[in-house]
Design brief:
mainly alpha, Citrate Synthase, domain 1, three-stranded antiparallel sheet, binds coenzyme A, 18 helices, 6 strands
């Protein structure tokens, strides 16, 4: 394999090193390009820019492959729990039984938040979006985690911080939900596993729409968390990595990641999908009209839940999630017109030349909202559920940045504003 590439600018020859990945992905290392030639590269949206070398996950967007630390997502989903997956992402290997016991018990030990967090939450206006609440509570949560009372230095082992966040994140999400629906807090139960606790903290004492401990629902929720756990250099993960590069703390970096995920072109798409499907239903179910609108370049409307920057064949997570959605709907005996409409829309889109030519396929967000809705989670909490899953991935990237001692992220730009000018007297 060739290790350098020769290229010419204005007749002068230059050499740049080539970097190879595990699956022979190729990159030209341009870090010295400006120094040697005066040129920078320009790539809005980082469509063709690798920003790091990472060993956490691998995606082949053409073949629809997703690996977590080398394991295919299809295998992980059937053989691992979310907690095992989190351990894998954070530590590089699956845990042995002793490691798993220690990891799970620590999470259960940290499964509570300070009463001050409850008081702060009470002060938020009830209409404020749950993603905003989750982000700000995550940021301040760090100040309430100390090893001992009156520990002014506040030294907590890094590994413990990861576990605190894994333990406390579902509590923040559940408290936010319960405040919205006017319910008092429901505390974690140390006898329950991670997804069961999540359901308990969200729904207990609420009017049950389903059996709280229904194993099909618990399994579906755990699988959804796994499917969302990691997805290499997406917008929110890159945000977390950038903050980590500046040596920002774990909690503030994750807090920024939550805000990035909130956007409708990213994690916020799951909420937007259900809104779109509801609007299609309300407006008389004229699916073709909506598809034409998405194709019309004069209209800014896009079919939410379709398209992906990396997947240009199919999203392997979408295939898995479609099966989970069907299982949950069947189990709960729900006759869901939204699911039927989703299938109809998918069928039409998958036979439409516009979407085929542009390689726009359903992504994970197309079906996740349908499952959350069936479980009883309100629309504005969907992206919060995504964040709960993505947490171990964000933390693994934050950690990798520090371990690799990566430099601070600081892109360049091409300035197109005014030339130097004077303020008129
Ligand atoms: N509906 C209609 N057209 C779409 C589309 C959609 N959902 N997604 C992309 N396109 C079109 C674009 O208009 C563009 O057309 P053009 O080449 O004629 O200008 C082309 O497909 C490429 O789209 P682009 O926005 O450049 O791709 P991207 O890689 O920058 O964006 C997404 C990827 C995911 C942001 C984009 O597909 C999208 O907005 N999808 C809907 C939101 C969503 O589901 N997000 C969740 C992602 S997991």
């Amino acid at each position: 394999m060739c290790n350098v590439i020769n290229f010419y600018i204005n007749g002068c020859q230059y050499k740049l090193p080539i970097v190879y990945g595990t699956f022979c992905e190729k990159a030209i290392n341009i870090s010295k390009l400006r120094e040697n030639t005066g040129f920078i590269t320009l790539d809005p949206g980082f469509k063709n820019t690798g920003i790091t070398k990472s060993s956490i996950s691998y995606i082949d967007g053409e073949k629809g492959i997703l690996l977590y630390r080398g394991y295919p997502i299809e295998e992980i989903i059937n053989k691992c729990s979310f907690i095992e997956t989190s351990y894998l992402l954070l530590n590089g290997e699956l845990p042995n039984p002793t490691q798993l016991k220690f990891f799970s018990e620590k999470i259960k030990k940290y499964n509570h938040v300070s009463q001050d967090i409850h008081k702060i939450l009470d002060k938020y206006p009830v209409f404020y979006h749950p993603m905003g609440i989750l982000s700000s509570l995550t940021c301040i949560l760090r100040s309430f985690i100390t090893t001992k009372k009156n520990d002014n230095n506040n030294h907590v082992k890094e590994q413990d911080l990861f576990l605190h966040l894994l333990a406390k994140f579902p509590i923040l999400a559940a408290l936010t939900y319960r405040k919205k629906v006017g319910l008092p807090p429901s505390y974690a139960d140390k006898n329950l596993d991670y997804p069961s606790n999540l359901l308990k903290m969200f729904f207990s004492t609420n009017k049950k729409k389903y059996d709280e401990f229904n194993p099909v629902i618990i399994d579906a929720l755990d699988k959804l968390l796994i499917l969302h756990a990691e997805h290499e250099q997406n917008c929110s993960t890159t945000t977390v990595r950038l903050l980590s590069s500046a040596h920002s703390g774990l909690f503030s970096s994750v807090s920024a990641g939550i805000c990035a995920l909130w956007g409708r072109l990213h994690g916020g798409a799951n909420e937007a999908v259900i809104e779109m499907l509801e609007n299609i239903l309300k407006s008389g179910k004229n699916v073709k009209k909506w598809i034409e609108m998405a194709k019309n370049k004069k209209n800014s409307f896009r079919l939410m839940g379709f398209g992906h920057r990396i997947y240009k064949n199919f999203d392997p997570r979408a295939k898995i999630i479609e099966n989970i959605a069907e299982k949950v709907i069947r189990e709960l005996g729900i006759n869901n017109p939204i699911l039927e409409l989703a299938k109809e829309l998918e069928d039409i889109v998958m036979n439409d030349s516009y979407f085929l030519e542009k390689k726009l396929y359903p992504n994970i967000d197309f079906y996740s909202g349908i499952i959350y809705q069936a479980i009883g989670i309100p629309k504005n909490m969907f992206t919060v559920m995504f964040a709960l899953g993505r947490l171990p991935g964000w933390m693994a990237h934050w950690k990798e940045m520090r371990l690799n001692r990566e430099p601070i992220g600081r892109p360049r730009q091409i300035y197109v504003g005014y030339k130097k000018r004077k303020i008129r007297n």
